[in-house]
């Protein structure tokens, strides 16, 4: 019996995908990016929101992307297009009752407005950074939003063997602009967004 665990570990080592141990496969190397349309990676794309909760503490939660694309050409990065949709019902916070409250008619009304969407309208590139302007739609309210983005990395994913591209971005919005302004000003109206966006070659 004492040989069961070592044997299992050996088998796992043989059958698991081979991943190099010499460092991360992705890096912020622009030459790795090739022209094309990439699909959003729902498992590794998150929008984290943060706001002031009654002056007592900061409050955070997350949305994950459900679908979307990034189209870009390294020779013409200013022509890049981003279109990403988020499922409101999949929002994440630390307590289920609070999540249900956020999904209720008091806030997002997820039953009536099940998704949010960001569609870019312009990109200004400065080295590994970019200012991305676009329209954010929540509860059928569409407002312009500016993302300050940084190219995080690109490379071949050792699991899927496909080219992956990632970005990190920040933005600021007012939740009342999107019909989610319950309890303002007791609960803060200003929302800080941090976006980790991952895309994979199709």
Describe this structure in words.
10% of the residues lie in helices and 49% in strands. With 202 residues, the chain is mainly beta. It has one domain (26-201): Lipid/polyisoprenoid-binding, YceI-like (Lipocalin, Beta Barrel), CATH 2.40.128. Strands 1, 2, 3, 4, 5, 6, 7, 8 and 9 form a 9-stranded antiparallel β-sheet that branches. The longest helix is centred in the N-terminal third of the chain and has 12 residues, at 4-15. It starts with a helix and ends with a strand. 20% of the residues are buried. Mean pLDDT is 91; it is low at 1-16.
Topology at a glance:
Blueprint (H helix, E strand, L loop, with lengths): L3 H12 L20 E5 L5 E8 L3 E16 L8 E7 L8 H8 L11 E12 L2 E10 L2 E16 L6 E12 L15 E12 L1
Antiparallel strand pairs: 1-3, 1-9, 2-3, 2-9, 3-4, 4-5, 5-6, 6-7, 7-8, 8-9
Short account of what is shown:
With 202 residues, the chain is mainly β.
Q: What gyration radius follows from the Cα positions, in whole Å?
A: 20 Å
Uncertain spans, ≥5 residues at pLDDT below 50?
A: 1-16
Overall CATH class: Mainly Beta
Number of self-contained structural domains: 1
- Number of beta strands: 9
| SSE order | HEEEEHEEEEE
Name the CATH superfamily assignment.
Answer: Lipid/polyisoprenoid-binding, YceI-like
Average pLDDT reading: 91
Shape: globular
Helix content range: under 10%
What does the main sheet amount to?
9 strands, antiparallel
Our count of helices gives 2
Structural class: mainly beta
Cα separation of the termini: 46 Å
Domain Lipid/polyisoprenoid-binding YceI-like: 37-200
Pfam families: YceI
Protein name: Lipid/polyisoprenoid-binding YceI-like domain-containing protein
Signal peptide: 1-20
